[in-house]
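LOG
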Amino acid sequence: ESFAERGKVLLALAKSLTEAKANLARSMTLEMGKNESEAKLEIDKCILACEFYAENGEKFLANQKTESNYKSSFVSFQPLGVVLCIMPWNFPLWQVIRFAAPALMAGNVVLLKHADITAGTAELIEECFQKATGPRKLFQNTHVDHEVCEKMIQHPFVQGVTFTGSSRGGREVAKASASALKKTVLELGGSDPYIVLADADIAKAAKICATARLVNCGQSCVAGKRFIVEKSIAEKFTQNFIEEMKMIKLAPLASKKFQKQIIEQVEKLKAAGGKVLLGGTAPVGAGAFYPATVLQFEKNPEILETEEVFGPVASIIWALDAADAMNIANSTRYGLGAALFTSDIKKGLEWIEKDLESGFVVLNDQVKSDPRLPFGGIKESGYGRELGIFGIHEFVNTKTVVVGG
């Protein structure tokens, strides 16, 4: 198919998502607890991604002329074929569309293995694709277990695999894919550091940090999780931060399983020296809720270097100075996102570009994925990129074409 025809499919998908917005939002709320307004914003972001790749896909995949010893040469970007995406429950629509839109624009077809708890949403997603693609089977939802999914990875028709989820799950997918020599992109966990230096706008930083911690009720790999603050302004920042966190009294988690996990993690954080300043105790009764929680550490705890806290729990860590803050930020095994707050824009840009060990770094704001920007991590946060021009190039054959003579 031509790029124009692929673009029409994506625009039809954007229309289909728009028409199904109410049903999709309701399904996400019922299955994993996302409030309806956030669900609708997620759908809007997916529509933007479809429109973005419909408009820019041909330009991103245009042949690139290259000088060489041949008479002429260029690089061509051709589709791989069938690509399997294994997606999580926390952003059940966005995670799928942010991969599928560029993959389809590149000429691939998509197999989806979604999380069990969002199976209903996965069916609605497939319906939206069916409306957009007509009789062509460009997208198929598969409700299978892990054992069957591994066989799908091994199948000769599958040419690539993308996975979003935990680092543990990423290792399993990488292992299965490597044994069959399949191209993979992994977007895994994070323990994102947000550094607040003494010269920052404290009130603004506290507001942004609280928003970053509570996105999706804290159930986001790219949410702010560790707030590393120069000791000289720690008290002022903490006061402001707690007031912002109090805006959310109880956060609905996706299931009782995840509530139990966050309860256990908070107990471990307490044992590691964390002083509870807000929340810290799960409510008794039905439902999977947890309060907005703030813990304070005078020294960097090892647990935050090795574990991702997936819920509305923020850890404030004292740093002696900017250099110490940077060391603490980079001490984690993760490297997905990071932020720095300072009034020194020139120095701040230098720090985030050269010193912060993350795939996505921000100065004086929070980390937010955007269809126009590449997204992904380093270290145990995975490899490869989604979105932007780099995302559409992940699952193509970057083919060298030359003419002799």
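LOG (cont.) second protein
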Amino acid sequence: RAIQYLKVSDSLFVSLKNKPLIAKNAQLLASSYLHTYAKDTLLNQHLLDKSLLYFNRAIYNYGDSTVFLKEKAVAYSDLSTLFSLKKDILKTKKYASIAIASFKKLKDTIAITTALNNLANNYWTEKNYVKAKQYYLEALNLIKYSKSLKAIQFKEAFYENIAYVLYDLKDYTAFNYLNKSFKIRDSLRDVEIRTILAKIDAEFNAERIKKQEEIKRLSETREKERSQRLNTILIIGFLLSLTGGFFLFRYMRMRREKLELELSKNQLLQQKKYDRLKQESQTKIINAALDGKEQERQEIAQILHDSVSALLSSANLHLQASKSQLEKPIPQEISKTQTILSEASQKIRNLSHDILSSVLLKFGLGYAMQDLCEKYSNSQITFEFKEDNINRYDQKFEIKINSIIEELINNIIKHSQATKALIYLKEENKKIEILIKDNGIGFDTEEMKTNIQTFGIGLSQIQARISSMKGLFKIDSTLNKGTAVLIKVPITYK
């Protein structure tokens, strides 16, 4: 019915060409459609589109005049809510920011606080907890010293919201904010109870005075004294019951707080235990996958080198023997076949070497690293290898170390933009120490610690592998100053 009459008003205002009235009427229409949204889920999209149409019309007709700054600020705030319902986070933030800027010009603290709260809620929805925390705290600071009931109610809600955001950030100072929220909530309840008690007391006093006057009029006798004593007893009983009820309420509230804190602590302990088990299981899965991959690479390389390559060489020898038995001229097809077999044999050897270095298997880690540096060095980047007291070790151990170094070299080539890199291996105190340095662009190690997945699966696998070998893995990097990786792992001897 509201929409029906507002549409009639709209046509009248349009005929009068009165832009401010058109704008205000359009804003009321937009708000009516937006309110209807929550009650009629079958027409949600249509209602939101209609609301958006009239909000845009309102803002257009208000124009750039500062006279209607508050109306436009409210419209932008409602637009932020509308796009939040449409799940359009970018536009939600955009219009919330415009509303906040306008309310700041108007110095409307409560409106600014409401808009900041909406903006923080949207960041929370998209799990951007850092931004959500920022805007909740900004809103809280605006009303920090306000004593109005509305401000106190807002503070109670903000403390609770900040507590949940910090909890999602695994910052367990969350309970301090939650406790502040509980205190404000309890103080509001205490005020409500005191208001009720004051009202009861006022009503009781009025009734007592009325009775006293009635008794005085009827009789100045002993009956009056007895009635007064009875009234006194009733008052005392009533006050005692109120006092008892108040203390019972306080006891129950304190007990509830204690139980809630104990529950929260138990939940945190369970979450920590779950996170630890999850991390351990992920590490085991990654190591199992890497072990399987390395075993499969070794088997494929051996098959290619020992079987396929040998068969190709044998076929070439048979062709050579056939050539010596044939009369001249020898067919070109035999010579071409020999050429093809030689080329295939060479490719098989190269493929076998790419899958698993034959230098590593035959001569060990030191020679394999020298071969790797020569292989990857070019006009863009030079790899230098140095070693100190490197010997032969268990073959599986050497393959694991080789895989780790290869992954780090690939990272340097793909991401570092370096021109020089050093690989240094040293055996000391039954441990092998690996230092890999480059002069590339570097990166932010703090960001890597908080979100290692952003820096690639390779680093996660290296970390898991070194953890399973009970080793140390450390990265030191500075933007535009290069990167240094230090690895120390206990040696497995042959």
